[in-house]
Amino acid sequence: MRRLRNVKIVATLGPASNDYEMIRALFEAGADVFRLNMSHGTHDDIRARHAMIRQVEADTGRPIAILADLQGPKLRVGTFAQESYDLADGDKFRLDLDATPGDATRVQLPHPEIFAALEPGASLLVNDGKIRLIVDECGTDYANCTVTVGGAISNRKGVNVPDVVLPLAALSAKDLKDLEFACSIGVDWIALSFVQRPEDVTEAKELVKGRALVLSKIEKPAAVKAYDAILAVSDGIMVARGDLGVELPVYSVPPIQKRLVRKARAAAKPVIVATQMLESMIESPMPTRAEVSDVATAIYEGADAVMLSAESAAGKFPIEAVTTMNNVAISVESDPTYRQIIESSRQVVRSTVADGIVGAAREIAESADIKAIAVFSQTGTTVNLVSRERPRVPIIALTPLIGTARRLCLTWGTHCVMTEEQDRFKGAVISAVRAARQHGFATETDQIVLTAGVPFNVQGTTNILRVAPCDERLIYKADPE
Q1: CA separation (Å) from 332 to 4, 264, 340, 388?
Q2: 97, 141 Cβ separation under 8 angstroms
Q3: pLDDT of residue 284
Q4: Is 217 tagged catalytic?
Q5: Alpha-carbon torsion (402, 403, 406, 408), positive or negative
Q6: Is the pLDDT of residue 420 over 60?
Q7: Predicted model pTM
């Protein structure tokens, strides 16, 4: 199945998308990557969804990526003597380690790590920022605060601490179990929550041991500040706008999104824009105009993928949500302004032979009547370099490794094709033109550009670029050997 767009669609699975028929329908509607949210469901639930995705993959003959999204540490207040209490602006409120049920003046915060990091003047946000506190005085086991934005507070509401880097690992005990489980069943990407520093990512990658790629969720102010270092050690990025919009002024999120996407593009690493993209479609078969504009903005920015969360996991209209996202993408990418924006934001990087070859491949494809750029790749690195160029023609990623094909389903503009291992360049050319014809990118009268590395099956050897006719007879005639 050939997609008519370059941006990829990530669909989260959940109660509304929990059987083979629905998962296949979501794939056929346009989903390229399925997200398994480790915050919900048992390992048996996750294993069953994983198996159904792999069955859809086998039945459709198209690689599909699976992304396991780790929950991350959850910071919550304790319990209250009554169901809830109202806090008014200006009230004094204390957080401490005492497990006694709370009241209108205090409650337990069972996280000594938070107290260790707090300083007077720091902000504390409760219940997704609906209640805001300022620390007046604090110690190793308490924080006396003033309520600056009041509201109803109740049992186990979440707490955000935007102003400080917390001495907490990104991987909780639950995350460690979930990570090992996800790798053992064979997911392609691990999404890491609560990233604050690059060390969080390197720790996760050491545990993953190459069994999947690690994608960092940028959802905390500390991660925005340390973004360059985090990007350098990550395999991909998710702009997780939900928590960003809680811990930062909501009006600061759009420019942050643009910066994060552009830097990830320059680094040739896939970037997903996520959270509340078509939120109203949880209950409605039609999105709002603002939501459509939000999805379009991420596509105009050149994001590799846009993501559905509750819309496809728990909403009433999961297929309609994917279809809407697919249609928005096709509409945007057919707009002449789209190409102008993409090309004006392209950052030319030419520091290696591979950089030069992929740049030349794009320029040749755009200056001649070339139908596609075919890339042979073991690891997907060269495919990501070609994708960074955001060429006007499709990218056919050819690989003998199913894991590589699946992981590349997240990369902008790529159509992944499994191929046999090659040991001669001529065989690679034949394989590439056959794939171009078979998947509807070209006919016998067309040409494609091919990049590869000789010797074959060796990582990091991209060193050949060839313009090839799609008529195999012409290839044999030019190279009878």
Answers
A1: 12, 21, 12, 19
A2: yes
A3: 98
A4: yes
A5: negative
A6: yes
A7: 0.95
